[in-house]
Design a protein that fits this description.
The chain is mainly α. It contains 13 helices and no strands. It is 69% helix and 0% strand.
């Protein structure tokens, strides 16, 4: 087999060089596209984290409004952030009743159990950091390395990695995201003692709301598809939604669920008047099946 001529070698070199330049150009274009995607992801994360922070700020306000301390630690150790946040959005009487029942459960605990719950401000910070990381991953705020972390081959990096200036701009977008800081309000002195006993023995938790939604979905017929879809969306949000969206669902259905747990008393009938008997019967049915708000 004869040796290649000088001309042939030059042609091979030119061809290889052209392919290398073409691949480098593709890597730059890919890097520029990735940069634009990171900018979009950064904007989405900024907006989502800002909304998540509102939920945590609301929950921390509830923690301070009950006096902080071991009771607030208990609240954050036994309930979702979304539920605690929703407590802060309730009408004063409903909020007092809900917190009063939680206080009753807390006071039933042995003294050594009451002190085992972690500081609620630290719990909030840990969960907040976890939600931020989840948002970054979901929205794609991370630099993708097509070559793998351990690749050291210079030619491979040259061909497949974006140019240095593009990588630096990508890193600036990702590292430029600064999580907002949370600061718990100062606990209100005497707030725990000021919680009034509940006028009702009814308690509502997230499981009650999920059951309410599930039963409603199963009750609605196929001819009520649009209404049914609304309840299904709220059910799914309460399972997999963002903290902010979960809090909205809890607040939306708290009072309707509360109404379904209220005892129903027979309406007094007027003897001999059938129309009034029928009205009483309808009143009972209306109490059993409260109107739903989609």
């Amino acid at each position: 087999m004869g040796l290649l001529s000088s001309k042939s070698l030059r042609q091979v070199a030119i061809g290889a060089g052209s392919r290398l330049l073409s691949r480098m150009d593709e890597a730059r274009q890919s890097g520029e596209q990735g940069l634009e995607e990171l900018k979009i992801a950064r904007k989405e994360v900024d907006e989502e984290v800002a909304n998540i922070k509102k939920t945590y700020d609301s929950a921390l306000t509830v923690g301070s409004s009950v006096g902080g301390g071991t009771f607030a630690n208990f609240l954050f150790g036994t309930n979702d952030i979304e539920y605690i946040s929703a407590l802060g959005q309730m009408a004063p009487d409903n909020r007092n009743d809900a917190i009063s029942e939680l206080k009753k459960n807390f006071e039933l605990l042995p003294e050594e159990e009451k002190t085992k719950f972690e500081d609620y401000t630290k719990v909030s910070q840990q969960k907040f950091s976890s939600d931020i990381n989840a948002s970054k991953i979901k929205n794609g705020l991370e630099i993708k390395n097509n070559m793998g972390k351990n690749t050291t081959n210079f030619l491979s990096k040259l061909m497949f990695e974006p140019p240095k200036d593009v990588r630096e701009r990508q890193e600036a977008v990702v590292s430029g995201f600064t999580p907002p800081e949370m600061e718990a309000p100062t606990p209100v002195v005497g707030a725990y003692e000021a919680i009034r006993p509940s006028t009702s023995a009814i308690t509502i938790d997230q499981g009650d709301i999920l059951s309410y939604l599930k039963n409603t979905i199963e009750t609605l017929g196929f001819n009520q598809k649009e209404i049914r879809t609304g309840f299904e969306n709220d059910y799914n949000t309460l399972i997999t939604g963002t903290p902010e969206d979960k809090a909205k669902v809890v607040q939306k259905y708290y009072y309707p669920v509360y109404q379904t747990k209220m005892p129903v008393y027979p309406t007094q009938k007027v003897t001999g008047q059938q129309d009034e008997e029928e009205e009483s019967y309808l009143d009972i049915l209306e109490d059993i099946n409260p109107n739903y708000s989609g």
